[in-house]
Design a protein that fits this description.
Number of helices: 9
Number of domains: 2
CATH topology of the largest domain: Pdz3 Domain
CATH class of the largest domain: Mainly Beta
Distance between the termini: 33 Å
Shape: globular
Strand content: 15-25%
Strand order of the largest sheet: 5-4-6-7
Helix content: 40-55%
Oligomer: single chain
Length: 276
C-alpha cells in the first residue's frame, strides 16, 4: 500500500488514471474468472480517506476532491455491480452493512484507516448483498465474481510493474508509457498472470524465472482477448520497451528481448477460443 503524493491541480488527473487502471483490471479479472482457481467477489470500487495525504497536501484534496472526515468511493467501475447500483466516485461513505466507518482523520499520513475499511468491505462481500450507506442515499451491492488480486497505480518514475502473489502494482511511469488501453491491459494482465497461474508464478532460479515470464506473456495475451482488448498492441509495446536503455534491470530475470518478442508474436493471433 502507499501514500498518495498530491500536487496542486493534479489530484483530479490522478483519480482519472486510477479509474482507468481500475476499469482495465476489472475487465481482465471478471472476463477470465473461469480460468482462475481463486475467485472472489470484487467490489468494483476503491475506498480513499484523507489520511492518505500529508498535512501539506490535504487542502488540495479537500478543494479538488471534496474530501471531509468520511471515506470516499473512488475508481468506481461503471460496468460493475457498484456502478450499476449508482455509486459514484466522490460519494462519501457513512456505513457498510450498518457498521459506521470511523471518521477520525490521523494527523500522520498513512493507509491504516483505509486498509481497515477495505478489509471490512471484503468481509461484507463474503455474504452479499452489501448495504452501503452514503450521505444522500443507501445502495445495495452484490459484487462481481473475478480473479483474486488487488491492482493499484503507485507513484514512481521507474518504468516498472510488479506482482507479489496477491497484489499488482503499476508505476506512474509505466502507466504514462502505455499508449492505449490495450497496452495497459497487457501490462496489467502480465502481472496478474504471475499471481493467478502456476506456470507463470515467480520462482527464484534464473531459467525458471525466464520461463515464467514467457508463460505470463502468453497468459496475458489470452486474458486480453477474453476481456475484449486488442492483442495486436503487445508486440509494438514490447518493441518500445526494448528500446529503453534503463531497462537493463530485466537482464537475468527476463528472457532476451529477441526470444520474448518472437514468442509474443507467435502467441498473438493464435489464442484459443477458451473464453466462457
Amino acid at each position: 500500500m502507499f501514500t498518495l503524493i498530491a500536487l496542486a491541480g493534479a489530484l483530479s488527473a490522478l483519480r482519472v488514471a486510477d479509474a482507468k487502471v481500475a476499469v482495465v483490471a476489472w475487465r481482465l479479472q471478471t472476463a477470465n474468472v473461469a480460468m482462475c482457481k481463486n475467485a472472489v467477489l470484487l467490489p468494483g470500487f476503491s475506498i480513499e480517506t484523507l489520511d492518505q495525504y500529508s498535512e501539506s497536501e490535504r487542502a488540495n484534496a479537500v478543494a479538488e476532491l471534496g474530501f471531509g472526515d468520511l471515506p470516499q468511493a473512488s475508481s468506481v467501475v461503471p460496468e460493475s455491480a457498484a456502478g450499476k447500483a449508482g455509486l459514484k466516485s466522490g460519494d462519501a461513505i457513512i456505513a457498510i452493512d450498518g457498521m459506521r466507518l470511523p471518521r477520525t482523520v490521523s494527523r500522520k499520513a498513512g493507509y491504516t484507516r483505509t486498509a481497515a475499511m477495505v478489509r471490512a468491505l471484503s468481509a461484507a462481500l463474503a455474504k452479499p448483498p452489501v448495504i452501503v450507506t452514503l450521505i444522500s442515499r443507501t445502495i445495495s451491492i452484490n459484487g462481481d465474481r473475478g480473479c483474486a488480486s488487488s491492482v493499484e497505480l503507485v507513484p514512481g518514475k521507474q518504468l516498472n510493474a510488479l506482482a507479489d502473489g496477491q497484489h499488482v502494482q503499476i508505476s506512474g511511469a509505466m502507466y504514462q508509457f502505455t499508449a492505449s488501453d490495450d497496452e495497459l491491459a497487457f501490462v496489467i494482465a502480465h502481472e496478474l498472470a504471475h499471481n493467478l497461474f502456476p506456470e507463470a508464478a515467480h520462482v527464484t532460479d534464473g531459467v525458471g524465472q525466464r520461463m515464467a515470464e514467457l508463460a505470463a506473456d502468453r497468459a496475458a495475451i489470452r486474458m486480453m482477448v477474453c476481456a475484449g482488448y486488442d492483442e495486436r498492441a503487445v508486440v509494438p509495446l514490447m518493441e518500445r520497451l526494448r528500446r529503453k536503455n534503463h531497462l537493463s534491470w530485466l537482464a537475468g530475470s527476463h528472457p532476451a528481448w529477441r526470444r520474448r518478442l518472437a514468442a509474443a508474436a507467435r502467441a498473438v493471433g493464435d489464442t484459443p477460443s477458451i473464453c466462457r
